[in-house]
Design goal:
about 15% helix; single chain; mainly beta; 6-stranded antiparallel beta barrel; Immunoglobulin-like; about 40% strand; Thrombin, subunit H; about 375 residues; elongated
């Protein structure tokens, strides 16, 4: 007997239970279908500052599927359809599968047909052609193609290893077969410093959709428990680290830091969010900057002249009076043309300046 399907998800269940093997479609046709239902997700903290970018796709009129790690630590979120300017509030989650890093989100103000689900993991073979659609680095509507290079078993669960590139911002997006059915959900991971591309089989998502419940609000305290993805590594954005932070007093007060690449492939276009906070830890200023320098595997770069200016009021509040007066004196002296070699630096209070990695581009090259 077939499992019971709720009315809202009848069509999704039907696609899974009776797989329709249509004529293979070109990448153009696959993208045409996907672009109507794939979204860019921007997740934010309690102050509505962005903490992550991701992808998702409609599985029912007002329900979006994505990875759980995309919403980790988020108090709110917005969804935006490819090619549209409107954004829509994410009301909360209506279903979670922590083991497979999947979540179903309720969205308000828009109704869009869900994409058809194939039986990823059962009707998929090594060598099958696939297409991934997502929003790497927030670049909307990016299509990449490849093949299923392996079907892995991790802790008794299946994962699809694919050659179609998955970069930060593409996590949670759909992976299609050549018939235009969703066979997987992209998840960006790395293991042992290697850049690997994986997708969670759509069959796990189909099971989740059979048990949709009431809406649970997003919470900044939410952190997913261990999943099969954790056995492979972590989020790809964890591969870019911010190290050696200092506040430098020379010509002006700047934040000095290094961007370290722990992945096995070179990266560039690293996008960082800087949040400057007051003594109570409340944000008073912020900025988003992209650094285009290429960073080789295992190495780091110091952005140099692109160090962000630190608001003077925050310096006065967070420095000791002696340090602040010394810094201001040095800056004034250097601007008068004397004392150009004078400077001092201090380790910044981590509660004063927070730096978040929002995204970057993985380069298809090796040293």
């Amino acid at each position: 007997m077939w499992p019971a399907c709720s009315k809202a998800f009848f069509s999704a269940c039907l696609f899974v239970l009776f797989i329709h093997r249509a004529t293979p479609q070109s990448g153009h046709l696959v993208f045409q279908r996907a672009s109507k239902s794939v979204v860019l997700l921007t997740m934010s903290d309690t102050n509505r500052q962005p903490i992550s970018l991701g992808s998702g796709f409609f599985v029912a009129d007002d329900v979006i599927a994505t990875n759980m790690h995309v919403i980790s630590g988020a108090a709110s979120g917005r969804a935006k359809l490819i090619g549209h300017s409107e954004t829509y509030d994410i009301v909360g989650s209506v279903g979670m599968d922590e083991e497979h890093d999947l979540v179903a989100l309720k969205v308000a103000g828009v109704r869009t047909p869900g994409l058809p689900l194939g039986n990823g993991g059962e009707a998929v073979s090594v060598g099958d052609e696939v297409y991934a659609v997502g929003n790497p680095q927030g670049l909307e509507g990016t299509l990449s193609n490849g093949i299923v290079s392996a079907i892995r078993e991790v802790e008794g669960q299946k994962l699809l290893q694919i050659t179609a590139p998955i970069s930060p911002g593409s996590s949670g997006g759909p992976v299609f077969d050549q018939h235009g059915q969703v066979i997987g959900i992209a998840v960006a991971t790395f293991k042992g410093g290697q850049n690997l591309n994986f997708a969670v089989p759509a069959s796990y998502l189909a099971k989740l959709l059979l048990h949709i419940g009431s809406v649970s609000p997003l919470s900044s305290n939410f952190r997913p428990s261990a999943s099969l993805i954790d056995a492979l590594g972590g989020r790809l954005t964890d591969g870019i680290q911010i190290t050696h932070r200092k506040i430098l007093c020379t010509l002006d007060a700047h934040l000095e830091f290094s961007i370290r690449n722990t992945l096995s492939q070179a990266v560039d276009d690293v996008t960082l969010l800087f949040i400057f906070k007051d003594g109570a830890g409340e944000p008073v200023d912020s900025m988003v900057t992209t650094y285009s320098s290429r960073i080789l595997p295992g190495l780091a770069t110091r952005p140099g002249q692109y160090w962000p200016d630190i608001p003077t009021g925050l310096l006065e509040e967070r420095f000791t009076k002696t340090d602040y007066n010394e810094c201001m004196w040095m800056i004034a002296d250097q601007k008068r043309g004397s004392g150009l070699g004078s400077s001092f630096s201090r380790e910044p209070d981590p509660n004063f300046i927070e730096i978040r990695v929002l995204g970057f581009r993985v380069l298809d090259e090796h040293p």
